[in-house]
Amino acid sequence: MPSFPPNASEKQYEEHVKRMEEFNEQTERFSRRILEQWPNEVPVRPEGSFTMIQVTQALHACIAQFSEWHKNRRSLDHLQLVDEQLRRIQSPLVRYPWPYASLQHSQIRERYNSAPNHNKLLSQRGSTHRFCVEEKET
Fold first, then answer.
1. Closest CA to 114 of 88, 85, 92
2. Pick from 53, 38, 50, 42: which is nearest to 1 by CA?
3. Residue 83 pLDDT class (50, 70, 90 cuts)
4. Comparing C-alpha atoms, which of 137, 1, 136 is closest to residue 58?
């Protein structure tokens, strides 16, 4: 981006304003042409003249951003598939033995009421699984 010297003349100021307008126009045009390429996995250099932009550096940043967006999109697609599969499961109240019950002082069993969907799983961020746990006395 062009800089403006503090002790410049009025003519220099007008030239600076003109360069800034050109810079803003080029960045808007570059950005629009890059975003028009979504959902391509890798954007390519847009057609046109971008003399005031470091195109190679900007394109590398755009490629990295598109890559992250695609990772997020694939994760969301996967979560939606898992959610669809979980919604098809109709599970009655089933008790499963705790896998490490022999290492515990008492026997622990987890009680599952139903298969969780992805909304329920995502609502439990930062916490352990919230299943009902009951201790069986011996």
1. 92
2. 53
3. confident
4. 1
Residues 96-115: tens digit of each pLDDT: 565 554 544 444 444 444 45
Delimit the domains of the chain by residue range.
Answer: 10-86, 91-136
Specify the residue for token string 């299943």: 131
Q: What is d(CA 49, CA 99) in angstroms, rounded to the nearest whole number?
A: 64
pTM exceeds 0.70 for this model: no
From start to end of the chain, where are the E strands? Answer: 94-97, 107-112, 132-136
Judge contact between 136 and 109, C-beta under 8 A: yes
Distance spanning both ends of the chain, measured CA to CA: 76
The first and second tokens of residue 110, run together, are 């987890």
Mean pLDDT computed over 35-50: 95
Cα torsion angle, 49, 51, 55, 58, sign: negative
Tokens for 98, please give them: 């705790």
